[in-house]
Design a protein that fits this description.
The protein is mainly alpha-helical. It has eight helices and no strands. Belongs to the HAUS1 family.
């Protein structure tokens, strides 16, 4: 208590005592209470500074202590009164028993021991008299309690069995999980190596993808330069090549005829007529070629 009091730091009581005499009265009560408590313990009250905070705590403690002491004194007085009444009643019962010739000195040892046993059983059953009905009621209450305890015990045993079953399943599950964990730990190294291989393969595939994209862009640019359009497909080109071969077959006799004219004597008028005739034939062949190409493109669309 001295440590608590010495640790409290607050304004002195003399500053607060100027407002009235209540603080002085509290200090007086606190000092009287401390003196009584330490005197009962055979010690002296230690010196400390009486501040408003320390006095407030000590006054509250003194109030609570005095209230509890007063209550304890009341209970003790009640117990002493009850004890006196019990002693008086015991003396009266003893006198009655002696007048009836049933004093403890005149009874045999078997009767005295039986009476003690009866009293002990009554105390054990928590009954105030030794009437047979009271014993029956107490025994019935004990039987009911016993039945309730047995029911609770059966319920607890059932729950214990369920918990034991759950525990066994949990242990089995834990063992299985431990084996799986060990297996996974064993598989870590191979999986890491496989992941490293996959990373290397992904890097190679990435470089190949960039290479193929670059080639695709180059081919696309090349096709744009040569005038390729999506309408020109392989089938159209094949048909055009076949028509070209047919036209070459048709124009070859004309070219052969023109070449044979080179061997003729130079007659300007006849040569001009022959040339104009071949030009008309050649123009007709070109027109026919254009019509065939247009018809092939239209059919493909």
């Amino acid at each position: 208590m001295s440590d608590t009091v010495s640790g409290a730091v607050d304004t002195p009581v003399t500053d607060a005592a100027k407002s009235g005499g209540s603080d002085a009265a509290r200090i007086a009560e606190v000092k009287a209470w401390l003196a009584s408590q330490f005197e009962a313990a055979g010690k002296e009250v230690p010196d400390f500074e009486y501040t408003s905070l320390s006095v407030g705590h000590l006054y509250n403690l003194a109030t609570v202590s005095q209230a509890k002491t007063q209550a304890a004194n009341i209970i003790a007085a009640d117990f002493r009164q009850k004890a006196a009444e019990y002693r008086s009643q015991a003396a009266r019962i003893k006198e009655i028993l002696e007048n009836m010739g049933l004093a403890q000195e005149s009874l045999t040892s078997n009767v005295v021991s039986s009476a003690h046993v009866l009293a002990n059983v009554a105390n054990l059953l928590n009954i105030r008299d030794t009437e047979f009905s009271s014993f029956l009621v107490a025994m019935g209450d004990i039987s009911l309690r016993k039945t309730a305890v047995e029911e609770k015990r059966a319920k607890v045993e059932k729950e214990s069995k369920i918990l034991l079953d759950y525990t066994r399943k949990a242990i089995a599950r834990l063992t299985y999980l431990k084996s799986i964990h060990k297996q996974l730990e064993d598989d870590v190294a191979p999986c890491q190596k496989q992941m490293e291989d996959w990373k290397t393969s992904l890097a190679v595939m990435g470089s190949k993808e960039r290479q193929y994209l670059q080639q695709y862009n180059n081919y696309k640019a090349l096709l744009n330069r040569v005038g390729y359009t999506p309408e020109i497909s392989h089938g159209v080109l094949v048909e055009m090549a076949e028509y070209r071969k047919e036209l070459e077959k048709k124009t070859k006799p004309i070219l052969d005829t023109l070449r044979s004219y080179q061997d003729l004597p130079p007659d300007k008028a006849l040569a001009a007529l022959a040339i104009e005739d071949k030009k008309r034939q050649y123009a007709a062949a070109e027109k026919y070629l254009e019509e065939v190409l247009h018809s092939a493109l239209a059919t493909n669309d």
